[in-house]
Amino acid sequence: MLDSDDGPPPPFPARILFETYEVGRLLGFGAFAKVYHARHTRSGHNVAIKVISKAKALRGNLFGNIKREIAAMRRLHHPHIVRLLEVFASRSTIYFVMEYAKGGELFTRLASSGRLPEDQSRRLFNQLISAVAFCHSRGVFHRDLKPENLLLDESNNLKLSDFGLSAIKSGDLGGEGLLHTLCGTPAYVAPEILLKIGYDGAKVDIWSCGIILFVMNAGYLPFNDSNLMGMYRKISRGGYRCPRWTSPELRQLISRLLDTNPATRITVEGILGDPWFRKGMDVEKVRRLMRFREDIEDRIAKIESGVSDEWDEERDLSAFDIISMSGGFNLSGFFNPAAAARERFLVEGRVDQVLDRMEKVSKEEGLWVRRWRRGEKGRGGAAVEGRMGTLVAWLEVFRLSPEFLVVEVESGTGEEAGRFNPQFWRESLTSRVRESAALPVAPTASKT
Ligand code: ADE
Question: Where is 255: in which H helix or E strand?
Fold first, then answer.
């Protein structure tokens, strides 16, 4: 196991971490952390594991950053944001198990190819803006956007990573709602940060997106100097020159992004309306990505916040509900009119046991689970997502009596929903139940 008092030893020969991950080659490293490729031994899925030495984190006063990174990544489920799958800790080390982006850093790509053609820059910039806008809508500001933190997957899709410097709304704010911590990487830092008068986290991220767009198109930085103070002076003045191959539309957008005045700098809405950004693009798709999964989070929030004083300690479903479910009333459109299929079956046991099993089955299949519970004792459920974040299934566990539960499965609309249909869940959950013998099942599935 990777474990020592002062940072982890090298991972070779391959080591098995927590009996679950076979750790392989080093993908990258910073002052306080190393990132390794690893394989989930049972499913064979690739992951990246960030290994942080607690001793070094303590010396660097980094526990705040680590906590912020966990809190930020837990909130953010989006196809263009690296997913945090699990967090482990040993006596000396913290491990973040993350989605693996096979294409590595955009920085490396730019370093080898110099610059990108405009249409490729546009595609990646579209994805970047959808991810950044999504973060902002969830109250998370990245504050360290740069090509090193932009990864690419096997299809060259962008994945935003490294939320170590992210600010979460309310934590870092001064009285007037502005951030005060000096952070970021010098060349990507917005001019208002250098003034140390407080700044708007959304505006500084937009500035950094402007620098990234410039670098993708030009292959070099807009503000550069061998001397740090010289670089800061150039950033504050905002004088830069676009290379000659830059189209007039792109020049216009870059000038709106690299506006030194945060009050007049372009906003996400402005970017979505920009002619260069929109060219040949499905802007509705970008908008959809910005709202990504809000429907699921809203649905969960509504259920979770519905705990009332009259809450029945014993059950979620009455005999009347069961009669309704068994075909007397067709409730199929009740939760989601677009639901393709829904199935219910009975199991014996506790809600948490069934949710644990759902999570285990999902993980083995490489699916992600967003689990929820209505209060400590009420019904529970899980939104199950495929690899691109599309909803595969919505599972809900109702308490029928202290001993019995009804599991309701609703198919999602994602590409993988066909394979992970209600039948799949019924078979995998009930066969597990039989295996464990502790939770026998009365197979009373009914279709509405
Ligand atoms: N380097 C840093 N994080 C990574 C990830 N999640 N996937 C691939 N390479 C990485």
Answer: helix 248-257
CATH number for the segment(s) 294-438: 3.30.310.80
Is position 162 annotated as part of the catalytic site?
no
Rounded to two decimals, what is the model's pTM?
A: 0.66
Q: Which of 23-27, 183-187, 360-364, 443-447 holds the top average pLDDT?
A: 23-27
164 close to ligand 1 (CB < 6 Angstrom)? no
How far apart, in whole angstroms, are the C-alpha atoms of residue 225 and residue 32?
27
Q: Which residue has the tokens 């083995």?
A: 364
- In the chain, domain spans: 16-99, 104-290, 294-438
Q: Whose Cα sits closest to atom 9 in ligand 1? A: 104
**Nearest residue CA, atom 8 of ligand 1?**
101
d(CA 416, ligand 1 centre) in Å: 25
Ligand 1 atom closest to the Cα of residue 102 is 8
Say if ligand 1 is within 6 A of residue 235 CB. Answer: no
What pLDDT, in 10s, does the model give residues 116-130? 999 999 999 999 998
Assigned CATH topology for domain 16-99: Phosphorylase Kinase; domain 1 (3.30.200)
161 lines ligand 1 (CB under 6 A): yes
- Taking alpha carbons only, the member of 242, 238, 239, 237 closest to residue 253 is 242
Where does 104-290 sit in CATH, by number? 1.10.510.10
pLDDT tens by residue, 324-374: 555 444 444 334 444 445 788 888 888 999 999 999 898 888 787 888 888
* Residue 394 near residue 381 (C-beta atoms within 8 A): yes
